[in-house]
Amino acid sequence: RKCVAFGAEGSEEVHTADEWDRTPTEPARKLTYQDLLELKEIQRSLPRANQPCDLLSGRPSRHYLSAVPIGLLPLLP
């Protein structure tokens, strides 16, 4: 039985964890060239956020979303 306890100042509430489906699945298929083109089009349609300059190169950084911690990878045309 898996449980999670929350509480403040000695009070405890115990919540039983949900049962997750852990059956194995097939790996994701490889992307086709058409899928890559579609992702590139989505990437180009995203708003660009103003970012500070890259400290190493001195060039402006290029991130598409300010709330995303990892920059989106450029896709080949």
UniProtKB/TrEMBL annotation:
- Output compositional bias ranges, type Basic and acidic residues: 12-26
Tree of life domain: Eukaryota
Region: Disordered, residue numbers:
1-26
Annotated protein name in UniProt: Uncharacterized protein
